[in-house]
## 1
Amino acid sequence: AQKVTQAQTEISVVEKEDVTLDCVYETRDTTYYLFWYKQPPSGELVFLIRRNSFDEQNEISGRYSWNFQKSTSSFNFTITASQVVDSAVYFCALTSGGSYIPTFGRGTSLIVHP
Amino acid sequence: ETGVTQTPRHLVMGMTNKKSLKCEQHLGHNAMYWYKQSAKKPLELMFVYNFKEQTENNSVPSRFSPECPNSSHLFLHLHTLQPEDSALYLCASSQGAAGLVPGANVLTFGAGSRLTVL
């Protein structure tokens, strides 16, 4: 069985603050993939990043960075110097065991105030 | 058109109506998905089709009836719905089982159909 936990239901910050969204996963498989998606108010989920279980390198893309730690089964997402346009619901997801169907977390709603 | 297109974007129906939601993708993907997203609830996977064959039915009530005539089109037929079925219905597509590494599939989502049942 696989599971994704996003314990933070809603986070509210002021523009330019840094914010970290937590994601903890569970799987018995040694090969798996982790994803982050963003859902802005328009409704469409947009893919942000994918990592496989064999690549623990952290990744930075502009103001976004991801910290993958197998030791704590976490794949956290940090937004540096947040902006109002970052306001959205962010979903963490997991595929494992060769399945192509992801398990999604409950999502974290991020509200960035001007 | 690129991406995943869902129509209609908004739908209001009575409990005795019959309506359908449509999803279309021209990405060359082989798998298509229906998700339900209710307020304050997580994404709920409803159905998955891979190469037009249903591979997942997540205990969805029979008042929701999916149809996948080909790999590019997916429908969700609705009849005798309940007010609690009001939600955002999201369609997605991916390479599915035919992908080089199925687990690495990225889903492409449509903007959703906002359904209100009166």
## 2
Amino acid sequence: EPEVTQTPSHQVTQMGQEVILRCVPISNHLYFYWYRQILGQKVEFLVSFYNNEISEKSEIFDDQFSVERPDGSNFTLKIRSTKLEDSAMYFCASSEGAGWETQYFGPGTRLLVL
Amino acid sequence: RKEVEQDPGPFNVPEGATVAFNCTYSNSASQSFFWYRQDCRKEPKLLMSVYSSGNEDGRFTAQLNRASQYISLLIRDSKLSDSATYLCVVNMGNAGNMLTFGGGTRLMVKP
């Protein structure tokens, strides 16, 4: 069964450093997403991406964040200058379409900012 | 008001019990609704979509009441493997693809 994959599974970084989280969505999917979950809290939407541009983003997704689809398979989330409060599990998801289409989640990258 | 609200639990039930979870959502324009399951430190996985007419998948039944902005999940004949956190999820995006999650309801099924 096709699945979303993410690398790395864990990342530890120093405050102020840049990190890039990588995702490979399911191959025939057209919509891509990033969510985050701070430990003990709910899953929060960050951004959705379709047709090589951001279609929606939340208030969390400020200028420190960016997304890119650098090639036909990868989808990345960059955090330009990490803060302590960026420590969270970051989930990538993908779906064939929008609306009722199921979003399939990857296993996540656990980011720890020291 | 929280956008998607759930009782955090935990619900501690014996094997074989029937258990029901409820969820309310704030955006009356929401178009699609889901229950996801999340195991500890894992990704959310779709359990089932929720349709206005109600739908059933084996031991799981989901109901939607749009007038009351209320969603429910019923689990019959609970198994040990049902122990997890159940996430009520509503698609609230303007473009139709922003999932808003409730905080989850934790279920623990005991032998």
